[in-house]
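We append the chain.
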Amino acid sequence: MKYGYISGEQRFFFIQSMLDIYDRTIVGYHIGLQCSGQDAARVLEQSLWDRKLFYSENKPVIRSDNGPQFTSHKFQNKVNDLEMEHERIPFRMPNLNAHIESFHRILEDDCLSRYEFDSYEEAYSVVTEFIRFYNEQRIHSSIGYLTPSEFYDNHLTNGLTTREIRV
Protein backbone atom coordinates (compact mmCIF):
# COMPACT_ATOMS: atom_id res chain seq x y z
CA MET A 1 0.00 0.00 0.00
CA LYS A 2 1.31 3.41 -0.99
CA TYR A 3 -0.39 6.75 -0.84
CA GLY A 4 -0.03 10.03 -2.69
CA TYR A 5 -1.35 13.52 -2.17
CA ILE A 6 -3.70 15.52 -4.38
CA SER A 7 -2.83 19.13 -3.58
CA GLY A 8 -5.66 20.59 -5.68
CA GLU A 9 -8.22 18.67 -3.61
CA GLN A 10 -6.23 18.58 -0.36
CA ARG A 11 -6.66 14.86 0.14
CA PHE A 12 -4.77 11.62 -0.16
CA PHE A 13 -5.27 8.76 -2.58
CA PHE A 14 -4.17 5.14 -2.24
CA ILE A 15 -2.30 2.75 -4.50
CA GLN A 16 -2.45 -0.95 -3.73
CA SER A 17 -0.20 -3.02 -5.99
CA MET A 18 0.29 -6.72 -6.53
CA LEU A 19 3.82 -7.54 -7.69
CA ASP A 20 5.07 -10.85 -9.09
CA ILE A 21 8.52 -11.22 -7.54
CA TYR A 22 9.62 -13.64 -10.27
CA ASP A 23 9.40 -11.19 -13.14
CA ARG A 24 8.86 -7.89 -11.23
CA THR A 25 5.59 -7.16 -13.04
CA ILE A 26 2.87 -5.18 -11.33
CA VAL A 27 0.16 -7.70 -12.18
CA GLY A 28 -2.69 -5.80 -10.58
CA TYR A 29 -3.39 -2.55 -8.80
CA HIS A 30 -6.06 -0.36 -7.28
CA ILE A 31 -5.92 3.42 -7.27
CA GLY A 32 -8.62 5.10 -5.22
CA LEU A 33 -9.60 7.62 -2.60
CA GLN A 34 -9.91 4.69 -0.22
CA CYS A 35 -8.68 1.12 -0.23
CA SER A 36 -10.67 -1.56 1.52
CA GLY A 37 -10.35 -5.29 1.89
CA GLN A 38 -12.87 -5.62 -0.93
CA ASP A 39 -10.60 -3.55 -3.20
CA ALA A 40 -7.59 -5.71 -2.30
CA ALA A 41 -9.64 -8.87 -2.94
CA ARG A 42 -10.65 -7.54 -6.36
CA VAL A 43 -6.98 -6.83 -7.23
CA LEU A 44 -6.04 -10.36 -6.17
CA GLU A 45 -8.79 -11.93 -8.25
CA GLN A 46 -8.01 -9.78 -11.31
CA SER A 47 -4.30 -10.59 -11.02
CA LEU A 48 -5.06 -14.31 -11.10
CA TRP A 49 -7.29 -13.86 -14.16
CA ASP A 50 -4.65 -11.80 -15.96
CA ARG A 51 -1.98 -14.43 -15.32
CA LYS A 52 -4.37 -17.27 -16.24
CA LEU A 53 -4.01 -18.75 -12.75
CA PHE A 54 -7.59 -18.41 -11.54
CA TYR A 55 -8.34 -22.12 -11.99
CA SER A 56 -4.77 -23.31 -11.50
CA GLU A 57 -4.00 -25.89 -8.86
CA ASN A 58 -0.63 -24.19 -8.22
CA LYS A 59 -1.54 -20.67 -7.26
CA PRO A 60 1.13 -18.27 -6.03
CA VAL A 61 1.63 -17.48 -2.36
CA ILE A 62 0.44 -14.01 -1.39
CA ARG A 63 2.72 -12.06 0.94
CA SER A 64 1.52 -8.84 2.53
CA ASP A 65 1.96 -6.64 5.53
CA ASN A 66 -0.66 -6.50 8.27
CA GLY A 67 -2.60 -3.54 6.91
CA PRO A 68 -6.35 -3.48 7.48
CA GLN A 69 -7.01 -4.33 3.82
CA PHE A 70 -5.11 -7.61 4.15
CA THR A 71 -6.41 -8.60 7.57
CA SER A 72 -10.03 -7.86 6.67
CA HIS A 73 -12.66 -10.58 6.46
CA LYS A 74 -13.37 -9.69 2.81
CA PHE A 75 -9.75 -10.25 1.76
CA GLN A 76 -9.23 -13.34 3.88
CA ASN A 77 -12.48 -14.87 2.63
CA LYS A 78 -11.35 -14.29 -0.97
CA VAL A 79 -7.98 -15.93 -0.22
CA ASN A 80 -9.78 -18.91 1.31
CA ASP A 81 -12.27 -19.14 -1.58
CA LEU A 82 -9.37 -19.17 -4.04
CA GLU A 83 -7.57 -21.80 -1.93
CA MET A 84 -4.43 -19.70 -1.69
CA GLU A 85 -1.77 -19.34 0.96
CA HIS A 86 -1.44 -15.90 2.52
CA GLU A 87 1.74 -15.01 4.41
CA ARG A 88 1.77 -11.90 6.55
CA ILE A 89 5.10 -10.43 7.45
CA PRO A 90 5.80 -9.68 11.11
CA PHE A 91 5.19 -6.15 12.36
CA ARG A 92 8.05 -3.69 11.75
CA MET A 93 9.81 -6.02 9.29
CA PRO A 94 9.36 -4.31 5.88
CA ASN A 95 12.58 -5.91 4.62
CA LEU A 96 10.60 -9.17 4.33
CA ASN A 97 8.51 -7.41 1.69
CA ALA A 98 11.58 -6.00 -0.06
CA HIS A 99 10.34 -6.35 -3.64
CA ILE A 100 7.16 -4.32 -3.19
CA GLU A 101 8.96 -1.85 -0.92
CA SER A 102 11.49 -1.33 -3.70
CA PHE A 103 8.66 -0.69 -6.17
CA HIS A 104 7.08 1.78 -3.74
CA ARG A 105 10.39 3.66 -3.52
CA ILE A 106 10.65 3.79 -7.33
CA LEU A 107 7.00 4.91 -7.54
CA GLU A 108 7.68 7.67 -5.02
CA ASP A 109 10.96 8.87 -6.55
CA ASP A 110 10.09 8.59 -10.24
CA CYS A 111 6.40 9.46 -10.17
CA LEU A 112 4.66 10.76 -7.05
CA SER A 113 7.33 13.24 -5.95
CA ARG A 114 7.59 14.72 -9.46
CA TYR A 115 3.98 15.87 -9.69
CA GLU A 116 1.69 18.18 -7.81
CA PHE A 117 -1.68 16.68 -8.65
CA ASP A 118 -4.62 19.03 -9.11
CA SER A 119 -7.28 16.31 -9.21
CA TYR A 120 -7.90 12.66 -8.55
CA GLU A 121 -8.34 12.12 -12.30
CA GLU A 122 -4.86 13.54 -12.96
CA ALA A 123 -3.31 11.40 -10.21
CA TYR A 124 -5.05 8.28 -11.54
CA SER A 125 -3.88 8.96 -15.09
CA VAL A 126 -0.26 9.67 -14.13
CA VAL A 127 0.08 6.65 -11.82
CA THR A 128 -1.57 4.34 -14.35
CA GLU A 129 0.84 5.53 -17.03
CA PHE A 130 3.79 5.08 -14.65
CA ILE A 131 2.78 1.46 -13.91
CA ARG A 132 2.53 0.80 -17.66
CA PHE A 133 6.00 2.35 -18.10
CA TYR A 134 7.36 0.29 -15.18
CA ASN A 135 6.04 -2.96 -16.68
CA GLU A 136 6.79 -2.32 -20.34
CA GLN A 137 9.77 0.04 -20.60
CA ARG A 138 11.81 0.19 -17.39
CA ILE A 139 14.63 -2.35 -17.37
CA HIS A 140 15.66 -4.26 -14.24
CA SER A 141 19.15 -5.56 -13.58
CA SER A 142 17.75 -8.44 -11.49
CA ILE A 143 15.99 -9.92 -14.53
CA GLY A 144 18.80 -9.63 -17.05
CA TYR A 145 18.30 -5.98 -18.00
CA LEU A 146 14.92 -6.70 -19.50
CA THR A 147 11.60 -5.07 -18.77
CA PRO A 148 9.19 -7.13 -16.65
CA SER A 149 6.99 -7.68 -19.73
CA GLU A 150 9.93 -8.85 -21.85
CA PHE A 151 11.11 -11.20 -19.12
CA TYR A 152 7.62 -12.65 -18.65
CA ASP A 153 7.10 -13.08 -22.41
CA ASN A 154 10.54 -14.72 -22.76
CA HIS A 155 9.69 -17.06 -19.91
CA LEU A 156 6.44 -18.09 -21.62
CA THR A 157 7.98 -18.64 -25.05
CA ASN A 158 11.50 -19.83 -24.20
CA GLY A 159 11.07 -21.31 -20.75
CA LEU A 160 13.65 -19.12 -19.05
CA THR A 161 14.80 -20.56 -15.79
CA THR A 162 16.05 -18.76 -12.73
CA ARG A 163 17.27 -19.92 -9.41
CA GLU A 164 14.82 -19.96 -6.53
CA ILE A 165 15.28 -17.32 -3.87
CA ARG A 166 13.46 -17.42 -0.55
CA VAL A 167 13.17 -14.12 1.25
